[in-house]
Amino acid sequence: MHPQQDPDRWSRLTAVAGEALAAASAGEDAVAVDLVTGYLSGSPEGDEEISELVLLLFAECSGMVSELGSGGATPVKMQVFDEDGQEVPIDDADPPVRTAIRTLLAEVHGDQEAAAEQIEIALANGAPQELATVVLQALRWTLKLAVECRTRDLPVPPWIATSLEE
């Protein structure tokens, strides 16, 4: 989705995402997920808007990964941990976490089509709890990457920076 095609939709999606990021930043994960899934599921274009919002978060994550990796000059490592803090292979992660990882990796490699396919599969096949996990993962990564970019004086998308100040 391109903001110039529908600025109202873009504003609405970034407003919802910003509120969800602020809630997640405050440790209110359930509120954050409810903001995304509850608000957008009430929309006549609910699934499409949820998909766009989640893809927006992953696209912003991808941009921040690129910034942290010096524009691709320095690799950024992705790791998955279980509840005990032990690293697990990506293929052994829970299905919604695998979906989130594959979506982010597709975005990082510039394959927006593959990223969109991952989210479409999650929406079509996933239980509500699985979708909530993907949404929460996108929010958490967005927060962590934004904080790390700020720590290193790297750019953070303005709408994300604003949500972190609330």
In words, what does this structure look like?
This protein is mainly alpha-helical and 166 residues long. Helices cover 69% and strands 2% of the residues. It is built from seven helices and two strands. It has helices spanning 7-25, 29-41, 46-68, 95-108, 112-125, 128-151, 158-165; strands at residues 80-81, 87-88. Strand 1 (80-81) and strand 2 (87-88) form a beta hairpin. It is globular and about 40 Å long. The mean pLDDT is 84.
Number of helices: 7
User: What coarse outline follows from CA principal-axis ratios?
Assistant: globular
Instruction: Provide the gyration radius in Å.
Output: 15 Å
> Distance between termini?
26 Å
Strand order of the largest sheet: 1-2
Oligomer: single chain
Q: How large a portion of the residues is in β-strands, by DSSP E?
A: under 5%
What would you call the structural class?
mainly alpha
